[in-house]
Amino acid sequence: MKPIIYLRCFKGIVLREALRFFHQKERFFSALVRPLVWLGIFAAGFRSVLGVAIIPPYETYIPYEVYIAPGLIAMIQLFNGMQSSLSMVYDREMGSMKTMLVSPIPRWFLLISKLLAGVFVSILQVYAFLIIASFWEIIPPIAGYFTILPALIFTGLMLGSLGMFLSSAIKQLENFAGVMNFVIFPMFFASSALYPLWKIEETSEWLYYVCFYNPFTYAVESIRFSLYSQFNFEYTAGIVIFTVIFLILSILGYDPARGSLQKKGGS
Amino acid sequence: MSTALQIKNVSHKFGEFKALKNVSIKIDSGDFTVLLGLNGAGKTTLYSLITRLYNNNSGSIKIHNFDVREKSSDALKNIGVVFQQPTLDLDLSVEENLHYHSSLHGLSFGDAKERIEEEIQRIDLIEKLKNKVRSLSGGQRRRVEIARSLLHKPKLLLLDEPTVGLDIGSRQMILKHVKSLCKRGDLAVLWATHLIDEIDKGEKVVIIHKGEIVESGDVIKIVKKTKQKNIRDAFNKLVGVKV
Ligand SMILES: Nc1ncnc2c1ncn2[C@@H]1O[C@H](COP(=O)(O)OP(=O)(O)O)[C@@H](O)[C@H]1O
Ligand SMILES: [Mg+2]
């Protein structure tokens, strides 16, 4: 197949995702309101309790709301990744996933396009959040608005491919609520989103290791560093590795000859 | 005449349950064939194998000589599908839905526009092009799905119970429309249904029961062979339904 065919297919999938997103206004607003509510609650509640000492990439003492902003950005992408995989489970039950899977274009390409489409939508949400957060005096250096973009693509891909893997592994919609509870919340709380890792280490060593190996921590920290135009090799490498693993698992999951569709599809 | 679909000795299991047992079917280009079977006979399972949503481990399935397992891309290029459940995006317009499908088949925007106009005119819904699918009736949605399945000019059209849940008027209109599609070219249609009254005398039918093909061929021949008055009685006799 010619490359132009792939390009047209990719454009079509991204456009559909974007159209769906803009048509579903509730989804757009809840995506924005959620981190802002958390910002309000946590920033107000914890700022007196948690003093954040100077740690990289920050060069001065920072207010707590500035500390948690990257975590909330990652949360936007985490929710988005889970939501688009939820829609994949839903689509699969409803059948619109089928129309995509019967396209002559290779399945791995369709899935990656779908993933990138979700990432694109999540990035729109993140920028909307950053604009609103600037009224909260969460203002990174101007360059940060640009340098965050590549990080968002990587973290979006990682969290999206995690969602896609889960969607290929989950048989029914009902099970998905469980995933939300067992994936989203543990991932968020056992990470560096709300408190720095050294603070966690002071309290509990095993929890520190959980947080340390949590993929979500890698997402939060990459975003944090990129917002200050710094590059952290370890976090980026970690994200690439996690993404590749999740992606391979989900492509296998959607391969008709293998994986969970096969279990679902019989033999 | 070329063969649009050739299925040879295909079986399929869900766990221990045998949903399809040694199924063989041959459909020529330009034919309208009804796949007739009660609920649970295995029609949807067979479609899932043809479209490669499920993997076939036994036998072979070929679309215009392309094996779905070895040449899945070439095979899928030649198939149009209307699934049993609705698959349109309700929040998008008819046009957006059709453009999305065109892009999944790699059509350029210009070609897609042209094809969409042709097909939407054929189903007589041009005035609904900009409307959200949500605002369409069940029958209209089905017609849009049929138009969509034809955008990439497939040679084999698979419809899975396309008239279920529709009123009589829409049912007849859709049936007539699809039958007319075969007449004009080399399109082959496989129409799965459990509704016997959708079969006309001069047509071909494949009767599937509990995962097995119990009879297939011209309606008239089957009626004669089973020594019955009509296809309804023939079907009842073949699948052992008491009337
Ligand atoms: N995913 C599945 N897992 C287990 N059994 C299934 C699955 N899909 C279908 N079946 C069973 O296989 C048989 C054939 O189903 P299906 O192909 O949907 O029939 P039809 O479309 O003719 O109504 C039914 O008995 C059904 O319960
Ligand atoms: Mg069925």
Write up this protein:
The complex is a heterodimer of chains A (267) and B (243). In chain A, helix 3 packs across helix 10 (215-227) and helix 10 (215-227) packs across helix 11 (233-253). The radius of gyration of chain A is 19 Å and the shape is globular. Chain A has one domain (3-265). Chain A is mainly alpha-helical. Chain A contains twelve helices and no strands. Chain B is α/β, with parallel strands linked by helices and 243 residues long. Chain B has two domains: 3-78 and 155-239, 3-Layer(aba) Sandwich (Rossmann fold); 89-153, no CATH class. Chain B is 35% helix and 26% strand. Chain B has helices spanning 43-50, 72-77, 94-104, 109-122, 138-150, 168-184, 219-225, 231-239; strands spanning 3-14, 17-28, 32-36, 60-63, 66-67, 79-82, 156-160, 188-193, 204-209, 212-218. In chain B, the strands form two sheets. Chain B has a six-stranded mixed beta sheet, with helices on both faces. In chain B, strands 2-1-4-5 form a four-stranded antiparallel beta sheet. In chain B, strand 9 (204-209) and strand 10 (212-218) form a beta hairpin. In chain B, helix 4 packs across helix 5 (138-150) and helix 5 (138-150) packs parallel to helix 6. Chain B is globular. In chain B, 46% of the residues are buried. The model of chain B has no long low-confidence stretch (mean pLDDT 93). Classes of the chains: A mainly alpha (267), B alpha/beta (243). The A-B interface holds A 1-2, 4-6, 8-9, 11-13, 15-16, 19-20, 23-24, 94-96, 98-106, 110, 256-257, 261-262, 265-267 and B 12-15, 19, 45, 48, 51-55, 57, 72-77, 79, 81, 83-89, 91-92, 96, 99-109. The structure holds adenosine-5'-diphosphate and magnesium ion. The site of adenosine-5'-diphosphate has 11 residues of chain B, from strand 2 and helix 1.
